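Tutorial, part two.
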Amino acid sequence: MTMAEVVLRGRVQTQQGSLFVALPRRTLTTMAETAPPPVKQPSGVDAAAPSPALGAAGWQPWTVGVAAVGAFALVLAGRAIVSTATGDDVDALVGVALIVLNAAPIALALILARLHGRATARDFGLRRPPLVRAMGLLVAVWLGLTVLTVLWVAALGLDGEEGQALTQRLGAEGTLSVIVLVVVVSVVGPVGEEVLFRGYIFRALRNWRGVWPATITTGVLFAATHLGWVSLALIVPIVVFGIAMCLLYHWTGSLYPCIAVHAFGNAIPLAGALDWTWQAPLLIVGSTLAALTLTRLLALGLGDGHRAAPEA
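Running the prediction step on this input gives:
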């Protein structure tokens, strides 16, 4: 006990460590009369029971199953929509449907988060990271992923056509097709996938089993949704990519670096598939900035809420 009050020879002494402060008896009486009444607990409520976790800390692992089913349903819907594309240019309705479908993971993540109360931008890691640390980790992760992917492709003798199923199906000749490809592959797609897989699924699994089980599981689920869009030979690099994005998010506490790497990484092969030369840097930089801007608008829409989120 750090503070005790004792009555000694008609006076009250307050003891805190080795400090004694003498108080008159009259002061004790006044304090006792003005003290607020004790708070009564409602009937049936355990005073010792912990309060429910708020925000991302309360996201339950069972919702990951719902998220996974929803993600695979969106993949199947995407394949069905793409199968209707014919000719050199995509139909406007197909293009809009693909863009909406790639934004749908954001809505799915928000719906699942809403099951545990109002979600804020911080719950999804939509906050500014420490700039120097985030940039250093971003560059390191990007270089590591690039080296591993190049070595893997070289070891298996893969060509540059392995990951271009969407480009080949929609065509790259028509203006509308190119616009849809850029928006889906390097802007909306990366934002939707990062919000769902890293922003929600990884956070929910980390609440349950910690960083590494959550990281590996999320990476595998992320790669599984790409089956049919890329060859099986590229699934391993995609698993590694998914794991790396989880770790980047965990290390920086922010989803922004993950979205930047994802958009940047998707824009590079897209530029190659479109056979662009001087336009390639514009596509890469523009797509990355557009994805980050879209993410910032999402964060502003969600708001920071009334509580400070724990560090990711």
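The longest helix spans residues 175-209. In part three we will examine how such features are distributed along the chain.
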